[in-house]
Each structure stands twice: as structure tokens, then as C-alpha cells.
């Protein structure tokens, strides 16, 4: 549980395409329908300009220090395209074979990210960078050529919620039970398995979970543990920070 007086930084993450490769995909590069939490760590580090040598930036995001919630603002839509991949880096050689590989991309993804961190200084730096549209390194959506738009929304107050409507994605470990559909809504639920939650600087993933989401971004009727209501201006959302 989060302590009292904790606030959440809120920003929107979007772009024309995104790709977050599933670890179990081999002959084709399939994508997760949302950014893994460990990928968000890389995004935060790029904006802040944290040291990338030997993945040192992950020391700022050790397990329990940082919590996020992810809300889908656009439906999950995918496209598959053949991409020519090369076996080596550097200048292209005439004798080098390029292999057409089928890759899956998220089409026009848009996510709302809720961010908290125990390090108040790091939190404030990230808030100022995003609010001012600044970034040390180019923010991307999984791959270097998939440029991300990062738009500041605001800062929200957090308090516990007992509602049975969840606006964010739900880690399966937090789910108690799904409930009948909310009147006026139709859910299309999807589970993203083997989702990376925490990672050490040696790139060992220490926590994985399944993630429950609605393909259309529709609120999910469910009982979950540690549901939080984040209120900003006249808006509020029930989210699971993990």
C-alpha cells in the first residue's frame, strides 16, 4: 500500500507505432499490447538522462521504489509488416544477406501513465522534464525508430478506492474476481502473459505477472486488491499501481 500524501505524476504516452517484443516469440516478433513496466523504466531513464552504462539506471528503480499504473486511451490495434533484419551492425555490405522478418506493431497506441516514486527528487525532476517537454535522450515506444510523444497531463492526489470499476490494466496477482459487465459497456478482455514487472541491472527479470486489460480501453468490472483513486482537476480514475 502507498503511504499518505502520495501524489501521482500523470502523462500520456503515444506514437504512430510501438513494439514491445514478447519474450517467447521466435519466428515472428510479436508485441505485448502495452509497454512492460521494465520498458517504462528505460523511458523514465531516457527523459532524465540517467547513466545507461551496465544498465546502472535500473538502480534507481529497484523493486518497491517505483509504482506505475497504465490506462489504455486507444483500442489495441495491431499491424504486421515484413522488416528486413541484418545479421550485423555497421555499414551495409553488398555481400550481406538481409532476412525479411514478420513483425507485429501496435497501431496508434496511446497510454496514460500514472507514476510514483519514493525518491522525491527523482519524481520532481521527471515531473519538470515532462511538463517542460524536455528529454535527455529521445523517448521511444520499444524500438529506436519508433519515436514517442510524451505529454504532461498533471499531478493527482491518491486515496484508496473500494469501487468495483477499474480504469487501468490489472496485474493478475491483484485480481480477486471479475464481475458482470457495467451497464452500457461491453468488455473485450485480454491477458498479456509473462509480462516483465521488475528487473535487475544484470537484466535478470525478477518479477513477472499476467496483465488483464480491455482491448477497447473500457473500464473493467472487478474486485482488486489495493485499488487507488487518482484525482486530478475534475477528473478521477480507479487504477492499480504496481
Automatic annotation (TrEMBL):
Keyword Transferase in record: no
Keywords: Antiviral defense
GO annotation, biological process: defense response to virus; maintenance of CRISPR repeat elements
Regions crossing the membrane: none
Keyword Protein biosynthesis: no
Coiled-coil region(s): none
Name of the encoding gene: cas5b
Protein name in UniProt: Type I-B CRISPR-associated protein Cas5
Phylogenetic classification of the source organism: Bacteria, Pseudomonadati, Bacteroidota, Saprospiria, Saprospirales
One Pfam family it belongs to: Cas_Cas5d
Entries under InterPro entries matching the protein: CRISPR-assoc_prot_Cas5, CRISPR-assoc_prot_Cas5_HALMA, CRISPR-assoc_prot_Cas5_N
Amino acid at each position: 500500500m502507498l503511504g499518505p500524501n502520495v501524489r501521482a505524476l500523470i502523462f500520456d504516452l503515444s506514437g504512430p507505432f510501438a513494439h514491445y517484443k514478447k519474450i517467447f516469440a521466435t519466428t515472428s516478433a510479436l508485441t505485448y499490447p502495452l509497454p512492460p513496466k521494465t520498458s517504462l523504466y528505460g523511458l523514465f531513464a531516457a527523459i532524465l538522462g540517467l547513466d545507461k552504462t551496465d544498465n546502472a539506471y535500473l538502480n534507481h528503480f529497484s523493486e518497491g521504489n517505483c509504482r506505475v499504473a497504465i490506462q489504455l486511451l486507444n483500442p489495441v490495434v495491431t499491424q504486421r509488416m515484413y522488416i528486413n533484419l541484418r545479421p550485423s551492425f555497421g555499414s551495409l555490405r553488398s555481400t550481406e544477406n538481409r532476412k525479411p522478418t514478420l513483425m507485429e506493431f501496435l497501431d496508434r497506441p496511446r497510454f496514460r501513465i500514472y507514476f510514483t516514486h519514493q525518491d522525491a527528487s527523482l519524481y520532481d525532476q521527471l515531473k519538470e522534464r515532462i511538463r517542460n517537454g524536455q528529454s535527455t535522450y529521445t523517448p521511444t515506444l520499444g524500438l529506436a525508430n519508433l519515436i514517442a510523444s510524451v505529454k504532461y497531463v498533471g499531478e493527482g492526489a491518491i486515496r484508496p478506492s473500494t469501487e468495483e470499476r477499474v480504469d487501468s490494466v490489472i496485474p493478475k496477482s491483484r485480481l480477486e474476481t471479475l464481475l458482470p459487465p457495467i451497464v452500457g459497456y461491453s468488455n473485450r478482455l485480454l491477458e498479456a502473459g509473462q509480462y516483465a514487472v521488475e528487473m535487475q541491472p544484470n537484466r535478470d527479470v525478477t518479477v513477472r505477472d499476467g496483465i488483464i486489460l480491455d482491448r477497447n480501453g473500457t473500464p473493467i468490472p472487478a474486485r482488486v486488491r489495493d485499488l487507488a483513486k487518482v484525482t486530478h482537476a475534475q477528473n478521477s480514475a480507479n487504477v492499480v499501481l504496481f
